[in-house]
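Example 3.
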Amino acid sequence: MLVVMRTDATAANVDAVCDAIRALGFTPVPMPGEQRTAVGLIGNDGQVDGSHIGGMAGVAQVINVTKPYKQVSREWKPDNTIVTIAPGVSFGGGELVVMAGPCSVESEVQILTAARAVRAAGASALRGGAYKPRSSPYAFQGLGTKGLQLLALARRETGLPIVTEAMDDAGAHEVAEVADMIQIGARNMQNYSLLRTVGKIGKPVLLKRGMSATITDLLLSAEYILAEGNPHVVLCERGLRGFDTATHNIFDLTAIPVVQRASHLPIVADPSHGTGVRALVPPMARAAVAAGADGILVEVHPTPERARSDGAQSLYPEQFTDLMRELRTIADAIGRTVAPAPGTTAAVAG
Amino acid sequence: MLVVMRTDATAANVDAVCDAIRALGFTPVPMPGEQRTAVGLIGNDGQVDGSHIGGMAGVAQVINVTKPYKQVSREWKPDNTIVTIAPGVSFGGGELVVMAGPCSVESEVQILTAARAVRAAGASALRGGAYKPRSSPYAFQGLGTKGLQLLALARRETGLPIVTEAMDDAGAHEVAEVADMIQIGARNMQNYSLLRTVGKIGKPVLLKRGMSATITDLLLSAEYILAEGNPHVVLCERGLRGFDTATHNIFDLTAIPVVQRASHLPIVADPSHGTGVRALVPPMARAAVAAGADGILVEVHPTPERARSDGAQSLYPEQFTDLMRELRTIADAIGRTVAPAPGTTAAVAG
Amino acid sequence: MLVVMRTDATAANVDAVCDAIRALGFTPVPMPGEQRTAVGLIGNDGQVDGSHIGGMAGVAQVINVTKPYKQVSREWKPDNTIVTIAPGVSFGGGELVVMAGPCSVESEVQILTAARAVRAAGASALRGGAYKPRSSPYAFQGLGTKGLQLLALARRETGLPIVTEAMDDAGAHEVAEVADMIQIGARNMQNYSLLRTVGKIGKPVLLKRGMSATITDLLLSAEYILAEGNPHVVLCERGLRGFDTATHNIFDLTAIPVVQRASHLPIVADPSHGTGVRALVPPMARAAVAAGADGILVEVHPTPERARSDGAQSLYPEQFTDLMRELRTIADAIGRTVAPAPGTTAAVAG
Amino acid sequence: MLVVMRTDATAANVDAVCDAIRALGFTPVPMPGEQRTAVGLIGNDGQVDGSHIGGMAGVAQVINVTKPYKQVSREWKPDNTIVTIAPGVSFGGGELVVMAGPCSVESEVQILTAARAVRAAGASALRGGAYKPRSSPYAFQGLGTKGLQLLALARRETGLPIVTEAMDDAGAHEVAEVADMIQIGARNMQNYSLLRTVGKIGKPVLLKRGMSATITDLLLSAEYILAEGNPHVVLCERGLRGFDTATHNIFDLTAIPVVQRASHLPIVADPSHGTGVRALVPPMARAAVAAGADGILVEVHPTPERARSDGAQSLYPEQFTDLMRELRTIADAIGRTVAPAPGTTAAVAG
């Protein structure tokens, strides 16, 4: 059960609700959000009769939620959430957002070349890692602060908003100074401390599905962010751990319609990590759009064969240009459009 | 190594090649096909120098194949195989074949209603099980012979070719009398005896991927059929065993471009078994087409809520009609077309 | 619901029960067994009140079974089933049965050497394949009939009962003439036609778990055999399809206590296929015994480095001798004993 | 390639080695440890000839490591690492360490009752969570600081060393003040920031395998800790994400011998999380010991039916006492012993 307080509820109203919940034998969990506070109940609340709470001062609504996740569910909020990361760049509406760029920021020349190329092809956001989680401590871990500065430069040069990953609490604050959207990687999907931190920071979050996470796990991780008062969450399918070495992962595109039925949050797909093989990226990007994804995250590198990470799955700029053309056609076939690069119009980008 | 004999090679030519292989210390495996015979080598043939065999009488070609599968590989045959199951109904070319119908044949009324509905919506083949592999011995196992007769009736009434499953050697011969395409189900993908049998029968085969089969496993199973001289094999992705109960399976659409790079055989997708949930079938059917599938196998039932099997994943006829419209648009977006129902023209069906 | 008939029930009694079931609106499924007939109900029988059937002539018992599997469940039969394949060689009691031998029968010398070696070390049954299911049609498929003859010879020479695989309906009848226990391999676990055939043959069956089968799937496959009147079924855990190439499979030893709680059938483990790596076989064989396995199936080859199949996972005879010593100690620690080779006594074998 | 510096190497020696590596065209990565510094090479170092570096001042050794992990490998250090968490409580030698206690610290009475019970039964360490990673933000998250104080109290009362989890960088420092061994949970196995932090803290670490981590992934995560100069790492198998709902996870005991061949680090098993079902814990704990585990981590609660987390998989104290007796017998059968509770002797504990 969740008790949603009115936006004008006072602290005393919230306290009274907490007392009422305690009187029922449960522990109240006040969850202050930007707009309003909700009060949750810890424990198996299936049999609780909370109808009298609905009539208390400052209470907007009492919700019995049948899923383990609450605020992210469509039961809680039937309408799609629209997450806006820059003027004209929004997830969850009719337009698809294409985020493209290299796995890692490697140098000023590399990131500017990549940013200009993906913008020219029609991407509406730039992806690129300054902090890289790598399986090996000896692998290239990203340029760190320098990488963030280069991303900020690329934004100034191209107008593209920035999507980049944060790996820990301290890093999240640093990343938040530059990023328009903070990415939480698959390995950190259940790093609850980090989820709470980006929840508190309040900037848009791109939350990638862990490599053996169920949809319920993914939505519960998103719930951690919303529980801190940050509703600006976009989910991302990026492939599951699989048994077939023909691909790097099993790209579970069915997650897209499953999430869209269960939650009001937008969901995008990452065919680069989802497949791990360059030649498989275009068909699977098309498939993701056809399945209803709200956007695509794709690795593009000016010179993939010299990339310091993920070269084998990065597209050449000209391949990305071709892919953008295909994605516009598929989007059109299902009654959607690919968002234009910021500051342009769809006609120009098309 | 495979030695491909010329179509005019004599039995003596083949014998001579076998002797030459024995002289190299290997066991020859003659594989007579409809058109020509190939002779394979058993064992680790990586270091064999078979160049002199290329010059022997009746030899067309000596092929060093780097994959564990041979005849199904693109190395062996670079051009797409076209599998035709009825006049105008071909897999592997520009047209997509939509096969639709109920999981099981249940009655004359049911199968005729279903057949007419899917034909009206534009399907070009009728699927329906007379023999059903069921996890429980106490579940409905299909109408058997009676079901095959009803399928034959439905073909006479609608002109739709029939795709139906065979479960064992004896059944394969019976099914072959009615079916235009014999389906081998996921559970029997490595029933090598059955694979050899349908290889010998020679009719087109729809081979479904096992629920934890790698692409290599799938292609090796197809190789069993080709090794018996039957090249008319269409592969089918139908979902992998997964850990998330939100769907029945993990629908691995990446298998489509992976197979198309590795093999010349057509590949279709089954979004009904791939997802197990009716509402997920249309988006995932669209995704399969966008990923490049050569066709779709989809369950449609006149009254899914009363179906004796797979009701929860069967589309209502009107949903299927809507889906066909969407598939035509997606196919168009990637430069393909959905095959019209046999005996009609695309313009009429569209 | 299952209606168990008395052993002296007449055909008329069974017919009357079938009529009573039809009167309830269900389809009766008579399941004649060796000893007695049971009549099952098809369909969702949860709400049926069948109490009046319990009073009909010839009816021993009416059972409401809560699991999808029926006759294999502990609800149906609380006591352990004991499966005896030769005098003194029984599964499911206090003694553990060790079945050992090569993957494939390759020659008279090979199989006799192997049989003598495993008998000397204390095995109580000989395993060896005459018909081998291989992923590739070009791999060694076993010696077939000749292999069966050599197994019969090995039994005459050593007294060890024979466990060997059948791959199809015709083969099952041939195998049954020689085998003391017919093995159904993992790839055929859901080959229902084959399951019915070995159910009808009536000889003991070793049913291996499929590589992505749930325990419920496995028990339902066993149910197919019992439904034909053959209760002599031993289950076998042999590893699941996994994502880590460090081992060939994920060896799911927890299946042992899970099966023992759910079913009265014995269960053994195959650490050779379960791991795929020779050095991992001894620790995992020990673990299987400690987990409560009713026996072990292990590959031993006189010269593994020259084996025609599974050489990398086959033990050397001296390793097997050491392993037998360890297994006796572990068995002793949990209050069980390793069965002696037939015709010897435990003291001699120890 | 790793260049291991002598313990008396100067900063100038390290700089010179770094220069030499740069001269080869690679980037040097100095890794200062507590005792000595190592210098790694970034990049594909397969073809580098670093023999001249071996002769430089301050260099102890130049190692060519063939695995992606380096310092954790047996190639790097052939002898078992012994990790000691309290006097007489060591992992990796002949004695097995049993760590037992509740999932969460819930109250003073609960943790003291649990601690005394597991000590009386013979456990040699107390486990219990003060900070709990929970899938839902609304589930009980542990008592935090208060929980750590209660664990410290339990240690004073029973003499048992404490194993408890840290979830983030700040928490790791707080946990380190109380814990004798810091646990990193499965969800944080690839939280590289946290791994580095516990590497720097230097206390013994219990690193649990992620639920879809390969053995290589697990060892690479351990490498992060060793790369910070902390060699006191014990690995833990706790079950993989599986498809069968009969158990909570697939308990991959083969990981034990696989790790022991690849690495010198100790490895223990957690049959409570590995199975998720109380009745399955004793057989699988026995199996883990038989497979060669260096210890067992097991959940024991005074009143599991009232536990705030993991009640269904927690043993009753009397069950744990029985289990300890069985584990001693199995350990004895393979030539090992179960470590006695600290301050007792094996004879008394036995």
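Confidence is low (pLDDT under 50) at residues 346-350 of chain C. Residues 317-333 of chain C form the longest helix (17 residues).
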